[in-house]
Amino acid sequence: MADFFANPVVCNTGPLIALSRVNLGHLLSKVFSRVLTTQAVVAELTAKDAGDSEEVRQTLKHVEIVQTSAPDPLLVTELDAGEASVIQAARDLGITGVLIDERRARRIAAEAYHLEVRGTCAVLLKAKREGMLSYIRPVLENLVSNAISSARNS
Is this structure's pTM higher than 0.85? Predict the structure, then answer.
């Protein structure tokens, strides 16, 4: 099987927010040949108030925004709009890899649509292996701290 990171990937909201919050959104374009996302994901970023941050705007500079067809009815009933659009975009474009952090969406992408699924941690591990990051632990601790702070503020 070809290296996941050597191929284009469609990215969901979670990895974009996570990498943006730790100012590492630029890693996406360094570890993948091409990174795409959808209008629905961009809309989710804006709706979650993350889209107004400079970090998210910087991350989106490394991502190509694509249009998708209407998602499969299974996707619409089981997942949120961003997740459904990411899986549909991968199917429409013949891309075999998606970046999704949410467990349910990962399972559906892998089991129902036979996509290769990775998440934020895989991007960080690849960046570490390639010498783009010296350490992963502080980044992960920062991500967890940000997630806890966001949960308290909601």
Answer: yes
